[in-house]
Amino acid sequence: MSVLNLQQIMSSRFRTSAAADAQTKSLMEVLGLSTKAAVARLAIGRSLSLGAFNGEAVDAKGLEIPAASLFSQDDVTIWVGLILTHARSHGIALDGMDAFRSALRQHWHRGAAMLIDDWRSSGENFDQFVGTLVKRRADLPDVGTSARTQKPSAANVTSAEDQSSQLTKALGEIGVGAEVKGVVHGPRLSRYKVALRDVNQLDKLRKGLERLALAMSLRDMMPALGHGDEAKTVTIDIPRAPKSWTTASKIEFLEALGAVSGAGAELMVCPGMTVVGDPVLFDLRTAPHLLVGGATGQGKSVCVHAILSSLIVKHTPATLQLALMDPKRVEFSIYAKSRFLWRDEIAVGADAARETLRALVSEMDARYERMSELGVNNIGDLAAKGVRLPFIVACVDELADLIMQDRSVEAEIIRLAQMARAAGIHLILATQRPDAKTFSGLVRSNIPARIALTVQKASESQIILDEGGAEDLLGRGDMIVKLAGSSLVRAHGYYLTPGDVENIVAR
Ligand SMILES: Nc1ncnc2c1ncn2[C@@H]1O[C@H](COP(=O)(O)OP(=O)(O)OP(=O)(O)O)[C@@H](O)[C@H]1O
Prior knowledge:
ten-stranded mixed β-sheet, 3 domains, ATP binding, 16 strands, DNA binding, binds adenosine-5'-triphosphate, Threonyl-tRNA Synthetase, Chain A, domain 2, single chain, alpha/beta, Arc Repressor Mutant, 20 helices, Rossmann fold
């Protein structure tokens, strides 16, 4: 600690954000804590167990507190050590008092928002809240976790599995003048940064990708080309053999969701990680409806459970209800006793699914009526007028089955897809049989967000994504995420076991 010293820290004052200040006050009340410092320590501890900050701007308009109230002489060394270790582990430069104050402010801000989320997720039940904290070890910051020096999803790739030299050689063989400048090994693919000798090499490389795969003996695994972050650089993603893959599980999943908080995070879902291991997060409110398709056994169910779990983690039954429809009668039994179930039951079989879709349309109409009475356009504004309605996320597990059994449901689906968003109702439609007969153009054009797991043919990828690509995925939760207005994102799903989902659903 050459630039920071403990004396300086103990004689400083620390200021939190306006949001954290307000949250600290409510947490004092609901938890019965007598000082803001006690909440602050809990919040900082909660945040320390997570990864890097997400870049959100955090103001310094909240409470100011002297270090002597925040820490004691006995424990200041531990707290400072934990904050410094966290910063070092996540590439945050703490080179002076200003940087230290800012880091502490961000921890307090992030941790307070997360404690509020925890409180809501516990159904505002004190024992359950404390149980959750203890389970997460949030009240005892864990040096082992904070000191992690690589992303949980980073692969441990041996030098034999690093293909930099084969790539350099193969680029030469296909006549592309380029140099491999670096590599990031993600969960399943390695991303090579390649500097081209001149920009004309790009066309040659694009046209030569298949020959590159052949030169590197990649068999049917195609490399993918992307733009680099510097002039004349590109990235080439190359799949590795499955033995060096890493699978991210519930811990990383919860960590990724824990890092997003606040009003904007209400319907944030996190199905997987990018090629380089960063969480893929998107907001179902803006999506606003999602189609998930993939051949049987490729990870569609795991993906849907991760999406529903993302929502449950951030809500209480008062703020979220799940309308689950299971025409095949197999998928949603884990949720049977969940307090989040809309109308306390799963619609099993085609008849019940049709009834549920009709009931959802009626609910939507009733919500529209309420909005019009109060002169507002959406449930957010309705809440501002004191009428708080839960979001309803409606999920059909096998849409193709349902449509084949009863074509008439298409009308309800289209109506909901066109209008339900403002009423706080969102659709997730899953299928293992993406074909043009079951998914009319009208259904597809009203469901803008898509996730494709591995499919058998390019034509199926076309149905889900409106383009090919999903037929080349690697299976086991490998996916392509398409959101309106953004380019496609390759992702690898979090692997939640049935037991993990059961625990989350039992909240
Ligand atoms: N994200 C993942 N990471 C690693 N393995 C996964 C992942 N997702 C799924 N798998 C593997 O794939 C298997 C099948 O997954 P899942 O049950 O979700 O497939 P599915 O496409 O829903 O199949 P079906 O349509 O037959 O129900 C899982 O049991 C697991 O072994």
